[in-house]
């Protein structure tokens, strides 16, 4: 009865969209959660994304509870700056960051039902550009599968954007002879990509919210459920009905961070079977900082102390 009356209508997916192939990554670390520090434990509720000010050595993050906070990198000291309905504090730079993070918080509110968009399987996403001088917004690319993180390249010739359920990142040329062209950047990622960040040293760091293929996860039952759901719309509808009654099984597992070079070649994969909904990764010095929409802290991994190893 519930199935028949529910209005959720998931779309069939093509064989290309269902491809379970996964790229080979030269190095990997699968103990990320177990060896990381928890920065701001209990005071950073769902720190989805981060911005880093290298001059002051401070990370800014917006959280699901409405707080925008800063964390000092050298001693992990946390200061709450602003919450919805209050006045930003700090210098003009911090006020600008607060404004930016406020926009992030508004986006986060709309992401509370992200699972609906992913399981519906329809390319509703878009890549947009905004001109602050004219206050106009332009649609650059349409028909994207859950369009997500965006990052410009060091030469600013194109931007890279993520499509979460499609497990890929593509690039859009913003200038030059190929302006307006969309090309492949990296495909067949070992998980669903969220935000992407450039480290200033020739590498991109991509947050992976969850594994999707049973070939990657030792506890195959959870990852197999993603594979089955993507192949069968009626399973996705059942999952959404279960979601509405808070009965959906927790499928978001083995999250982490993928590292790739400027050409889109895989370098390393940091993850953990028990990690869930990792949304961003940022390398600062010898540390990897990770945000999420799930945990009440920022993960900090000492890359020098816990390096990745070859997968061969």
From TrEMBL:
Residues 112-176 form the Strictosidine synthase conserved region domain. The keyword RNA-binding does not apply. It is found in: Vacuole. One of its GO terms (cellular component) is vacuole. Keywords: Glycoprotein, Phosphoprotein, Vacuole. One of its GO terms (molecular function) is hydrolase activity. Its main location: other. The keyword Phosphoprotein applies. Belongs to the strictosidine synthase family. This is Strictosidine synthase conserved region domain-containing protein. It comes from Lithocarpus litseifolius.
